[in-house]
Design goal:
- The protein is of the alpha/beta class and 428 residues long.
- It folds into two domains: 168 residues, Aspartate Aminotransferase, domain 1 (Alpha-Beta Complex); 240 residues, Aspartate Aminotransferase, domain 2.
- Helices cover 36% and strands 17% of the residues.
- It is built from twelve helices and 18 strands.
- A hairpin with a 2-residue loop joins strand 6 and strand 7.
- Helix 6 packs parallel to helix 7.
- The radius of gyration is 22 Å and the shape is globular.
- The protein binds pyridoxal-5'-phosphate.
- Pyridoxal-5'-phosphate binds next to helix 5.
Length: 428
């Protein structure tokens, strides 16, 4: 309550901006995930790892724009690439070299991607990946996982598909539970109707829960055995290993047929992509009779292609990718040690993690359903505490480290979490 009072008295301009927004946007909001009570902060500017809000507070950015902010806020190489591209014109209404250059950079990183196409967002990438799978297999059903998030038109919670989801026939299985997959496959004519299995190799927005190796391998086998297309949504996880996301850690015969990408790969601009096996992606070859159509005014947008190239080629080098991953692993291990024996549980992999407040033991958090008892009040208190101490994290405890964060910022963040654990020990 005290933290909520402090929040209200110290953020009057954010409140004014929010109130004005409610006149023109439903609930003052255009990205559901960004709303929290009583009103969210409005940011004004950002530099490096820092955000500044309209009331003059500085925050160290640990949200990292839900992984899209990998490069931090003012990576000069990317800003130069965007500026140079903008000088030559924003939109040509034609092909341009930037698209094949970025496509080659992405394709070379993901051995499972022979050919790819760009979209404007990860949501569109999911839409197109499913369409490709349905066209390729001639089948209809889409097997997904409870608690997964594949974009604004693809959310699955409490075993249900959201009313705003794209109208596919979904089968909703339990993450990290191969038996639930097999049961659904069997119930659907031994997968005679399943066009694709769509999975995040680590549940991202749903709580940063890694897919176990045996589970991912089992999905590959189940898909192959039933002529279904295996789609890995690596929109968030592609940052894990510079050489191709989480799938790069799987044996080469256990890779997906299609991969969807997004977030940081566009250098921080709007971006999405889907790609995979030649035989599937060739369905979109416009030289073919009856080619599948896939359009989008901004698919090859000049600024994104340029920013993406600069980021992948010049900034996200193998060395920096590995260091970020290791930093994330070290930070999470430290946080797990500090919170041991409390309700705070820190899940994740590499530079992506999530704070949960639950009785469930850390090792028992294997699917989003295991978090259904999460204490929302405590996670709200934690959020306000972190904001009050100058750390910007998601309301639901999600954290994605950027390349701009320095070692001392990670250490100070850790100390603040430790302060929280101490000052709230009676609740935890
Ligand atoms: N897939 C995953 C795993 C995501 O985390 C997201 C976004 O958070 C998306 C797809 C959708 O991407 P976008 O927000 O660019 O539409």
């Amino acid at each position: 309550d005290q933290l909520a009072e402090v929040y209200k008295t110290s953020n009057p301009r954010s409140e004014t901006i929010y109130n004005a927004a409610t006149e023109v946007l439903p609930g003052g909001n255009t990205r559901s995930v960004l709303f929290y009570h009583p009103y969210p902060l409005s940011m004004k500017s950002a530099e490096g790892s820092r955000l500044k809000d309209v009331d003059g507070h500085d925050y160290v950015d640990f949200l990292g724009e839900y992984t899209a902010g990998l490069y931090g806020h003012s990576e000069q190489i990317i800003i130069n690439a965007i500026t140079e591209a903008a000088k030559k014109g924003l939109s040509f209404g034609s092909q341009h070299e930037g698209e094949s250059v970025l496509a080659a950079l992405v394709g070379n990183r993901f051995p499972s991607i022979d050919l790819l196409r760009f979209t404007n967002s990860g949501t569109e990438a999911t839409l197109m990946a499913i369409s490709a799978a349905k066209a390729y297999t001639g089948k209809k059903k889409v097997l997904v996982f409870d608690g997964a998030y594949h974009g604004g038109a693809f959310t699955f919670k409490g075993g249900k598909s959201s009313p705003v989801n794209a109208p596919h026939e979904y089968l909703i299985a339990k993450f990290n539970d191969l038996d639930s997959v097999k049961a659904l496959m069997q119930a659907n004519g031994n997968a005679g109707h399943v066009a694709c299995i769509l999975v995040e190799p680590m549940i991202g927005s749903g709580g940063a829960i890694p897919g176990e190796r045996a589970f991912l391998e089992g999905l590959r086998k189940a898909a192959t055995a039933s002529d279904a297309v295996l789609i890995f949504d690596e929109v968030m996880t592609s940052r894990m290993h510079q050489g191709g996301g989480i799938q790069s850690q799987l044996p080469s015969d256990l890779r997906p047929d299609i991969t969807t990408l997004g977030k940081y790969i566009g250098g921080g601009m709007s971006f999405g992509a889907f790609g995979g096996k030649r035989a599937i992606m060739e369905l979109f070859d416009p030289r073919r009779p009856n080619a599948l159509s896939h359009a989008g005014t901004f698919n090859n947008n000049v600024l994104t292609m340029s920013a993406g190239r600069a980021g992948l080629e010049e900034v996200f080098t193998p060395r920096r990718a590995a260091r970020l991953h290791d930093r994330g692993e070290a930070l999470r291990r430290t946080l797990q040690r500090l919170s041991h024996g409390t309700l705070m549980k820190v899940t994740g992999y590499g530079s992506i993690m999530c704070f949960h407040f639950t009785q469930t033991a850390l090792e028992k958090i294997r699917s989003p359903g295991d978090l259904s008892e999460d204490d929302k009040v405590l996670s709200g208190v934690f959020h306000l505490f972190m904001l009050a101490n100058g750390y910007y994290v998601a309301r639901r405890g999600f954290v994605a480290l950027s390349l701009a964060l320095q070692e001392d910022e990670l250490e100070a963040f850790t100390r603040t979490v430790q302060d929280f654990l101490q000052s709230h020990s009676q609740l935890l």
